Amino acid sequence: MTNRLAEAKSLYLRKHAENPIDWWPWCDEALATARAQNKPIFLSIGYSSCHWCTVMEGEAFSDIAIADYMNANYLPIKVDREERPDLDSIYMQALQMMSGQGGWPLNIFLSPEDLVPFYAGTYFPVDPRYGRPGFFQVLQSLRRYYDTEKQDLQQRKALIIESLLTSAVLQDGTTTELEDHELLRQGWETSTGIITPSQSGNSFPMIPYTELALRGTRFNFESRHNGKEVCTQRGLELALGGIYDHVGGGFHRYTVDPTWTVPHFEKMLYDNGQIVEYLASLWSAGIQEPAFERAIAGTVQWLKREMTAPEGYFYAAQDADSFTESTAVEPEEGSFYVWSYTELQQLLTPEELTELQQQFTVTPNGNFEGRNVLQRRNLGQLTATLETSLSKLFGVRYGVSSKSLETFPPARNNQEAKTTNWPGRIPSVTDTKMIVAWNSLMISGLARAATVFQQPLYLELAARAANFILENQFVDGRFHRLNYQGEPTVSAQSEDYAFFIKALLDLQASNPEQNQWLENAIAIQNEFNNFLWSVELGGYHNTSSDTSQDLIVRERSYADNATPSANGIAIANLVRLALLTDNLDYLDLAELGLKAFKSVMHRAPQACPSLFTALDWYRNSTLIRSSTEQINSLIPKFLPTAVFAITSDLPEGSVGLVCQGLKCLAPAESVEHLLQQVHKSQVRA
């Protein structure tokens, strides 16, 4: 017996289709039913590759007693945060206000008449443990509270909605104003400190912070940090660590330790796109460690083999868990990726195993539940022997050699994973939906790596994905966020607009002669401005003016998380568009956007590195006009606030023109002169 979610397109929602809970999707009918029956709404938000979401689905949400009580006393709604990041953002902020922490699954209780939350938490076990209350007791207590403590309920909700509305308006609480250059230094200093190696806790890529830290190294700011060393170290942690899949390519979500050794094994498209771009930028900045190039190449091969749809777009994510055998009831975390010492002894020659142990974290006792996650111990190129050993491991995992495996089909759900006759290990489930924002991050990463490493394949993959979005994601002339097997759905949100416009500009930057990317970026920017720009406050709302009726507050994303903030990327895009089109309306919007968030940048620089990146673009934007030959020689260099325009109409005797924002320098009379002007333009005070 299945519930309403059996008809959902979302893999995450379908995973709950056989729960005894009478789940609804988020829709007008569900909200109206809750109001009519005077039932508080239990809203549960998560995503398909979330480990603790999966645990709770198999425990509390599968418990008959809990389901019976839930169905009688609440209106339960399931939301995929990847479908509705606007809902997730609002209610995650409410969770953080109430508990001081966030995370998924996000379980929150709402009053049906106004959708304002009154209680929230993350993972709830069936019975009390881990210092957490049992879920059944939580449900009983909250229903009793909802029925009997009406005055306290109203007061509690009033405080929460007031806090949410105040946060959305971003009232200026600053007392001092820093000059932009000093403000930029403060943002750089903060981000560099955040990515400085730590001795405790989980290790996340945090690419928006690394991006700002790297671009700030060109200023030689006075600091207690050595920015270049910190940025290099983060690159090494990513490319050498267990967070990277040294056998099959691709980066896992994060590691559960400060040593970058044992990952939480899901692979998210958005992480991989950002990391590829960052490693390519490190290389272009002169930090040319062979492990960076190998990690990028391996990630692109993984992307092409496992994450690219026949139509050219990229899938969203792969789960952390997988089945060890087809008869297993539950999947195990990391089983697709890890190696027992006995396996390695059987697969490798003694010489190969000895060298693997010298260069990777391989021991008889293992580093993850008795098995081994591979983490490199040293820099440099891997030897032929090591590459042979890793190829053998690839063959065991996938059942075929890496050279002959062009495409590895996705397991779209647990049933497919368990019933398909896989030639190697049973793979993790792949969430095959197309998300515009995440595809855009991957397109940007590929475009940058293509120019830095002169790899046409990278650019080909990026262009195919971009063309799929351009050809398929518009319905009645409006941009849409998701695509399920050829069907576009859900109106685009600010991150979809911002990230895709950036991706188009990055494709145009990789080949400035192809103006169709710029033309499409301009058209989508116009729609973005028309429907999401906040005339009253400045900056972009998360959702369009005609699709936000079911939201209790209309937010403007400015804080960076695992992905950059939409407004940070959008403001940088506006500066780039102004340079490329000579349309100063874009620059006016960029200035208004920065003013809108200036108080946050002063008050909480740790929250918004992408806004500081946008400020860098605004302060140091540089347009370089030159011949095709000269432009092609400049594109691979680390020039983080430069845009390029190919022209044959140069003053006689010159090789190029450099414009700093709204003024142009004297024509450069030699390549050396041009380079000198370009580099000075990138660091003007």
Arrangement of strands in the largest sheet: 1-3-2-4-5
Going by helix content, strand content and strand pairing, the class is alpha+beta
Mean pLDDT: 94
The main sheet comes to:
5 strands, mixed
Number of β-strand runs: 20
Features:
48% helix, 685 residues, 25 helices, globular, single chain, alpha+beta, four-stranded antiparallel β-sheet, five-stranded mixed β-sheet
Describe the structure.
By secondary structure, this protein is of the alpha+beta class. 48% of the residues lie in helices and 10% in strands. It is built from 25 helices and 20 strands.
Structure summary:
The chain is an alpha+beta fold. It contains 25 helices and 20 strands.
Helices and strands in order:
Layout: H1 11-14, E1 24-25, H2 28-37, E2 41-46, H3 51-58, H4 64-73, E3 75-80, H5 85-99, E4 106-110, E5 117-121, H6 135-148, H7 150-169, H8 180-194, H9 207-216, H10 227-240, E6 254-255, E7 263-264, E8 267-268, H11 269-284, H12 290-306, E9 317-318, E10 321-322, E11 332-333, H13 341-347, H14 350-359, H15 384-398, H16 414-419, E12 430-431, E13 434-435, H17 436-453, H18 456-472, E14 474-475, E15 478-484, E16 487-491, H19 494-510, H20 516-532, H21 566-581, H22 584-603, H23 609-620, E17 622-626, H24 628-634, E18 642-646, E19 656-660, E20 663-664, H25 671-681
Parallel strand pairs: 1-3, 2-3, 17-18
Antiparallel strand pairs: 2-4, 4-5, 6-7, 8-9, 9-12, 10-11, 13-15, 14-15, 15-16, 17-19, 19-20
Helix pairs in contact: 4-6, 8-9, 8-23, 9-10, 9-11, 9-23, 10-11, 10-12, 11-12, 11-17, 14-15, 17-18, 17-19, 18-19, 19-20, 19-21, 21-22, 21-23, 22-23
